What does this fold into?
Amino acid sequence: MAIKSILSEKSLGILMHPSSLPGGTQSGTFGLEAKVWIKKLSNHGINYWQFLPLTPTDSTGSPYSSPSSFALNPWFLDINELIEKRFVFISKEEELGIKNQNQNNYFDFDLADNLSKKLGGHLLNAWEYQSEKRKKDFFKWIKNNYWVEDYSIFMVLREEFNMLPWWQWPIQFKEGNIEFLNPWIEKNKESILIKKLIQWHLDNQWKEIKAFAKSNGIKLIGDLPFYVSRDSVDVWKNKKLFSVSQNGDLIFQSGVPPDYFSSTGQLWGTPTYFWSKHKKENFDWWRRRFKRQFELVDLLRLDHFRALSAYWRVEGNAKTAINGKWINSPGRRILNILKKDLRADSLPIIAEDLGVITSDVEKLRKNFELPGMKILQFAFDGNPDNPYLPDNIEGQNWVVYTGTHDNSTSTSWWECLDNNIKRKLNEDYKLFNNPSWDLMEIGMKTKANLFIAPIQDILSLDDSCRLNTPGTIKNNWRWKLNKPLEDIEQKLKDFSDLGKSCGRIND
It folds into this structure.
């Protein structure tokens, strides 16, 4: 049976990570505000909610460098539901002793971590008093989610060794020998149980949100990094699948070669895959990774999609990405296996195919009818052949964005544009009275089946509200909407009305 595109009609979506939702003492959560958000999208005919990876973050707050490809971020745990259902024996979140400090539109990672730890302690204290049915449900979930055990052990070990990366642990722990670990596991069983309880509740809360989204006609678009962090349970427990030695040294690392933007390329520091080992195991790790993601979302943006065709491999001790080489990947085989596993005519994947894309990558995407991405902020450099220019977007199987989480907001993008480019844009489009909204209108009028705007552009915010600035660490991933969702209702309606005028929403 021929594969068809997952996108079949003109529609709209909004990009906003759950951490940016209002509500919650620190980060946004899987609580009431997530459902209010979904309901508002539904009421306005906006069919897609896109967000970043839902996984725990690294020390800088990035969800793209997670200690686990399978776990959920403890910051998202909704306290109020735990109180209401008596999973914790407190009457209000203030008893946890951490005040809301979101007045400046940023939340504090350390306070969010401390809140999670305190909440974990309360979950443990109340656990022995839970009903037998609840305990049975918990143990059944643990049995069906093999990754939870390793993740929980790994996270407690990290804390014991002062958050050092696993390759700096004592050798027996570094190697992860289960016979050696068993006495340690018994000694730390309560701390490990806390990690498991947090993941169980997160999973239940998010599954409820997913079901609520489905009942309201909203599709959830997740995000999957191609590579995984070297300092992750994935690598620690599966060293043979990754280009690391037993002691944690990088044999090969990932990146991209030199280009117009960087004379030395980009070096990412994540291990590449030993594809021959994955093939011997019939890509079991990848299949479990995808299975987990599609338990959580309806569609998945696959970051750095081009590496499914070929990836840039650099020596593990290299200081720049100059002296690497292209290595072929078994992307076709993986996607065919995934199609069989999902029993789907259409693969629910959006290919992040930004940058310089070669014909082999384009062929792989087209063979599986995967929607690609177009970013309007990249379009207007004066080159008439620019692939992001609206007139150069061929066909409908695309997701068009004003920008992504890694870009400036459209307001700040416009402010920084060269005056000659601004004049040219005014001549060609007779627009830019309001740069965010004018750029959104351009995107909605393209042939692409799906148009998505970051919430910052819908609210015409500047770069003080930007989510991430690549290459920097200050204030990234911290932005939060510090006002009730009711206060942005008119903006959502305006977005919807613009979509109607562009044929993306039916009355």
In short: The first helix runs from residue 32 to 43. The first strand starts at residue 11 and ends at 15. The mean pLDDT is 94.
